[in-house]
Write a structure and sequence with these properties.
By secondary structure, this protein is mainly alpha-helical. It has 2 helices and no strands. Helix 1 packs antiparallel against helix 2.
Length: about 60
C-alpha cells in the first residue's frame, strides 16, 4: 500500500504537467501542474503526520 501511494505521489505532477513550448506568457491562474504539486505536498504531509502519530501512539502503549 505504501509503495503504491508513494508512486502515485511521485508520478501525478509529471503526468498532469503540460510540456513547455519555450514561450513565456502571462499567468491569469495557477497551472494544473501547480495544483497537482500542491495536492501531492498536502498528501505527503498528511501521510507523514498520520504515520508519526501511529508510531508515537505505539511507543506510548509500551
Amino acid at each position: 500500500m505504501f509503495r503504491i501511494a508513494a508512486a502515485l505521489l511521485l508520478i501525478a505532477p509529471s503526468v498532469l504537467a503540460a510540456p513547455h513550448n519555450g514561450v513565456a506568457g502571462s499567468r491569469s491562474m495557477p497551472e494544473l501542474s501547480d495544483i497537482a504539486l500542491f495536492l501531492c505536498a498536502a498528501g505527503a504531509v498528511w501521510f507523514v503526520r498520520r504515520a508519526l502519530r501511529a508510531r508515537f501512539r505505539r511507543a506510548r502503549e509500551d
